[in-house]
Model the fold of this input.
Amino acid sequence: MDRHLADFLNRPLHIGNRSIPGRLVLAPMTDLGHVAFRQLLSEFGGHGLLWAEMADARRLPTENPTVSNCFRWREAEKDHLVFQIVGHDPQQMALAARRIQAEGLFGVDINFGCSVQAICKKGAGAALLRTPDRAEAVVAAVRRAVSCPVLVKYRTGWQDDPQPAVDLARRFEAAGADALTFHPRVAPDRRTRPPRWPIIAAVKEAVTIPVFGNGNVFSPADCRRVLDTTGCDGVALGRMAIARPWSFAEWTGRLDPDPGIYRRTALRLIHLLRIHFEPAKALVRFRRFARYFAANLRFGHSLCRRLATANDLDAAATVVEAFFDTSPELTASPNPNFFH
Done:
């Protein structure tokens, strides 16, 4: 274990009018950061904040948490849970933010990072990086609407030029953002090229608010390197958090994982999915998780193929048990080919 890294990650950090206990946080991920997965992470511990799935700002004010697929949480996680909203209209975003604050959650995260075509065609997500004035207006409207922390997740932009990202960082801070999560890739790039960590450093240097670095942090060594080379205040784990949900606990010195943790983790998530979702939706979510989790296994594709034919969670659990009964070979680090 890297004790110096663990000591830094365990330092509290102020975000707006709140404080978090650590600097390693869950990056926002649609269809992956759901309530069952967040409970799994909470059982391991080590995170400073958790992000919920992306929610459409138009629908969120009237969402019912008892039936909603994404606007759901456990009471125990409310004080460290950030809800991410996506949209292009400042007033709609403000109304969604008010609903999040009214529920007593930690804060609101504004999504300017999603580059999925269906979102960008609506003028939301990363599309707003093309119109800095409107993006700034969204942040300002949300800031006026709530007193809880306001965070912004964004990426480099639509061209491989760091200056717009730096300019946007200053504008977001001026508009009232309390923290930034920055992913140094251009919007059209779906992880085909490495993230440009030096742009994180430029963003951090441009603002006084906390900046979480994000992108290709797959090991404690990666985490230490991005912190040392960029000066960012913390790190947001995305794909690595799905592949190894115990990473937060491991990197912060709370856990020394044993080989049996892989079987136990997969089976535990199946159990939690049963609690939180109806069977068909639970199975879809487990298969989505398994694509990342299989990156830890030398023959992970075999596990994914078997799960694809499982008709329900009972069958999925049987597949998991049978697969690990064969003592599959584990990889030293997750295979990034599973992450695309």
Notes: The CA atoms of residues 184 and 324 lie 37 Å apart. Strands lie at 13-15, 18-20, 24-26, 50-56, 81-86, 107-112, 150-157, 179-186, 211-213, 234-237. The chain has a mean pLDDT of 95.
